[in-house]
Amino acid sequence: PGPGATLYAASKAALAGMVRGIARDLGERRITANLVNPGPIATERNPEGSDRGQVGAGPLVLKRYGTPEEVAALVVHLASPEGAYITGQVYNVDGGWTV
């Protein structure tokens, strides 16, 4: 984590562990559970080029903020029949932020 982000990082790690546990517990019932971690996403409150969310993190490999539609595309896929065999996974939709 970047400076001052210890509690934020701990909560993200807890969510990842929780989603794996939920996937394990509900898998017999064919219920899937996955976690989507968006990186910098261009929104009205977080316009591209702002420094919100940039503190203490590496550069964006794709050199741009993502769009809400790009995050939604993954969520739609995971919720579709094509995503029925995907469970217990953590997806960073972050333009390479975590590379």
Overall structural class, as computed from helix and strand content, comes to mainly alpha
Shape verdict: globular
Q: What number is the mean pLDDT?
A: 89
H and E string: HEHE
Q: How much helical structure, as a percent, in the residues?
A: 25-40%
Radius of gyration: 15 Å
Number of helices: 2
Looking across the biggest beta sheet, what order are the strands in? Answer: 1-2
Major beta-sheet overview: 2 strands, parallel
| Number of strand elements | 2
Task: Kindly describe this structure.
The structure is a single chain. The protein contains two helices and two strands, in the order H-E-H-E. The chain has 99 residues and is mainly alpha-helical. A two-stranded parallel sheet has the order 1-2. Strand 1 (35-38), helix 2 (68-79) and strand 2 form a beta-alpha-beta unit. The model has no long low-confidence stretch (mean pLDDT 89).
Brief synopsis:
The chain has 99 residues and is mainly alpha-helical. The chain contains two helices and two strands.
Give structural attributes.
single chain; 99 residues; mainly alpha; two-stranded parallel sheet; 2 helices
List the helices and strands and how they pair.
Layout: H1 6-26, E1 35-38, H2 68-79, E2 90-93
Parallel strand pairs: 1-2
